[in-house]
Amino acid sequence: MNCYKMNVKSNRKQFRANVCRRAFTLVELLVVIAIMGALIAMLLPAINTARESARKMQCGNSIKQMALACLSYESTYHLLPPACNFTNNTSGVLDESNQRANWIILVLPFIEQKALFDEIDGMLKQSGINVESNSATSKIDATITMKSCRETVISSLLCPSDGNNRNKYESAGSGGFTGARCNYGANMGLGDARYLYSDWGNSLKHGVMGPGKTMKTEEMIDGASNTIMLAELRSGVVSVDCRGTWALGGPGPSAIARCGYDGDAKGPNSRNDSSDDIIGCDAVKALIDLDQLKIMGMACYNYSSNIQATSRSAHPGGVQTAFCDGSVHWITDGISVGTSESDLGTWDKLILPCDGFSLSNADF
What we know:
With 364 residues, the protein is an alpha+beta fold. Helices cover 30% and strands 11% of the residues. The longest helix is centred in the first third of the chain and has 52 residues, at 26-77.
């Protein structure tokens, strides 16, 4: 009996000793936590890179779908949609007061938004295409009272990398409205948007989708596979910033223009002080100073019209583009940009459909 009690006591002591030996000290616990923290810190950049890679791929898929919608429009109407239309395309005043239909409104039926297109149909009547004069017009009430339609968020127009594209545009212009955002813009060309209607015959100025003017892919001398149709846009960083607004025409809101050798919007993600000449930039700079806008890659200059804007993205190092054959290409910020009509860079040549230069994928 005594032996049994002694064994029990001995076993209990041994058990307590084992329990004590298996426990962590506070120092050991802190060391483990520190190691786990270091491992997480090392893994986070890789995780973020993987997430951005997925977002970039999704963005590429979205811009491809928009390009295919434009090609479907061309198949139906025998011309690509115009980037924008205004009450008087030749006036040089591209502001909200004389807005008509832009390219996104015109392709709504081709991106499964027929119901939204039909809502707008009260003002946007049947499109009239004049193939002989190579122009396109859309009958739409100049005042555009379709405010509720403009507020509609269209997910296929949004790049997941842009953290501002869910914040809507608040217009302070004539007949102010609230506008949902977009991240894809039409290639209007390298000329000042105010004069592209009259400059459409200049092969060193016009793009593929202009103000009241457009073209067929078969007319692109350089080839559809060598010409940008659509390029990324960044949504405005504050509500009064009109950039990236789908139902608003012109460079900045839904197009790019004068973003190469001519002007100071030199290529994708330009950080020049006044690289985007847009309506309402002073209101933007009243909320965010120019130095901060430059750091953000969203500098601008106040103008009475939206006349100049380059392609911008929230992806590090470049922009997604869709070419006129429906293919998608990543263009880096370091792509060469020309200095004059006689010194075109690779970016300029990709914007211009009839400059006479054919490029291979190795060039960009």
